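Example record

The entry below shows one chain as it appears in the dataset: sequence first, then C-alpha cells.
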Amino acid sequence: MARPHIEPFCDRDVAFKKMSLAGFGNGMHYKMLSFDPDTGACSMSVQLDNGYRRAPGFSWSEVEMMVIEGELTVGGRTCRKGHYFYVPAGYALPEISTQDGCLLLFLTNTGEPSHQESDSHHALAQTDLYHDVDSYMDIPWALGNVTKPSVANGCLIKLLNFNPISQAMTFLYCMTPNFSQDNISYHDCAEESYHLWGTSWMMQFGNLPTGGYFWRPAYINHGAFASEFGCIALGRVDSKLFNHFHYNPWTTPQENRERSAARLYKRDPLLYRWAVSQNHNHPHSPQDFEDTMSRRGAEQGHDNEHKTDGSRHDHWHGHNHYDDGSAYKH
C-alpha cells in the first residue's frame, strides 16, 4: 500500500469536514486518518448527525465499520458501541440511520468511499464473506499470542476478520493496566491502529490517547511499549503478522528489510535462492498452479469456485484465455 507513515496522530486535534461524495447524503462528516493516493482507500472517523439516513446500497470497495459512540440502525436493527461490520465490495446494506447521531470508524480497503443506491447485491459480490458482530459483548478476549514470537503477557485480542489468502487481520486488542514490553519490533506488513479508549506509550512516538491513530508501513521500528491504565484499540495488518524483535533502536527500514531476508534465507534457504535467482525473479509473484489449474464441472470450461480459500473466485483477471486466431473465446 502507498499510504505514508502517520504516527502519532490524534483525531481529537482536527475538525470534522463535510462529506461531499455522491450517495452519502447530508449529515455525514469525516476526519481523514490516512489515505492511499494510488487507490483512494482510506481510514476515517465519521460523525453522523441526528436524523441521518442513507439509502440501501453497496460500495465498490470492501468496507469495515465500527460504532465508536452512539447507536446506528441498520435495516431496523439497532447496533451499539463496539459493533463491527465487514462489508464486501458490492454487498448491499439496507438503509442505515441514527436517531441521536453516532461516531463511526469507517475503513475502505480497495478504493475510495462510494455508495451506489441499490436494493440488491452486485452480481459479483462475495456475499458469503459479509459478517457483523457486537465485538464488546459477543466475543471473549483471548491471549495475544496469534503469532510467534508473541507480545508480552497482558496484551489480549478479539479477532474480527481474517483473510485466509493474505492472512490480513482486523482485531480488537487491549493492553491491561501496567502492561509493558521492553523490546523493539518491526513487521513485514503494514500496521494500523485506532485507540477506542485509553492511552498507550511508545518509546519513539510518545503517548497515544483516546482517538489516537497510526498507519505504520512495514519495517518501521516501534517499541518499547507500555500502558499505565490500559487501553482498547482496533488494529489491522495487511498481510501475515510476524514480530521481528530486537534491541537496536537505530536500525533503518532498509536494514530491517535485509534482516528479514536474511532470516528467510536461514529458515528456507532453497526457497530463498530460487526466489531471488535471475531466472525466477517474478515482479508480480510466481504463479500458484492451484489458481489456474483446470477443474471438473467448469462453467464455460472454467470452474470459478476455487475452494482452497473458502470463498468464491471470480475468474475474470483482465485477460483472455485463448491464443490469437483461436476460434474459442470467452
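Notes for this example: The two ends are 32 Å apart (CA to CA). Residues 301-330 have pLDDT under 50 and may be disordered.
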